[in-house]
Specification:
Length: 214
């Protein structure tokens, strides 16, 4: 089942809203996703789009581990939240400032004592799998990316892009924590930063050849 609403992009403010629900044949798995994306055009030069996405997958048969001649599966619940922002300011038709931000958080929580073994015919059979600190399949994943770039088209087909980027990444087994707590743990990690300059220059082969001939 799907539902979608989108308003007029010609207006200064517009919004997209969607929702999706899925069930599966001969399975207890359920998937749900919703997305909200408001956008605002401040003027002819400056615009911004925010996107929020929430998704969850319940009772999903998922791979756990690979043992000698054994493929072990388990039933897990997955929950994800994504926030992103895209913004741009055009100084002119040739110069622009662009911002891109994304934070993605996801947890995977396996049901206790509900593991199975994959047979050659594709069937799953109950299996006694001992979970320890070393092989715990539960997961908490959180990542932050921020890009700020300035682009300048200084000649036809030629462009210079100055980019600043920072990112943070965290992965652990804390599948029972909430989003805010996971975000706090994320900011305790080291911040990776990068500054780069890319130059693209277009050379017309025919012009160069004629110049040398002349």
């Amino acid at each position: 089942m799907d539902a979608f609403i989108s308003t007029d992009y010609r207006k200064k403010f517009a919004i997209d809203v969607s929702a999706n629900y899925r069930t599966f044949y001969k399975s207890d798995q359920e998937n749900f996703r919703t997305e909200i994306s408001p956008r605002f055009r401040f003027n002819d030069k400056f615009s911004m789009v925010y996107n929020f996405r929430y998704s969850t997958s319940l009772n999903r048969d998922s791979f756990v581990a690979l043992a000698p001649k054994q493929e072990i599966f388990g039933v897990r619940d997955v929950q994800s939240i994504e926030n992103s922002i895209q913004a741009s300011y055009n100084f002119s038709t040739k110069q622009a400032l662009n911002l891109s931000f994304r934070n993605f958080w996801s947890i995977a929580d396996f049901e206790e004592n509900n593991f199975s073994l994959l047979h050659e015919n594709g069937d799953l059979a109950a299996f006694d799998y001992e979970v320890t600190d070393d092989n715990d399949p539960n997961a908490n994943f959180n990542i932050w990316n921020f890009d700020l770039s300035y682009s300048w088209q200084f000649a036809p087909g030629s462009e210079a892009i100055l980019l600043y980027r920072n990112s943070i990444f965290n992965f652990d087994k804390q599948s029972d924590i909430q989003f805010t707590e996971s975000l706090q743990n994320l900011f305790n990690q080291d911040l990776r930063q990068n500054l780069s300059l890319r130059l693209v220059y277009y050379i017309d082969y025919n012009n160069v050849r004629n110049m040398f001939k002349g």
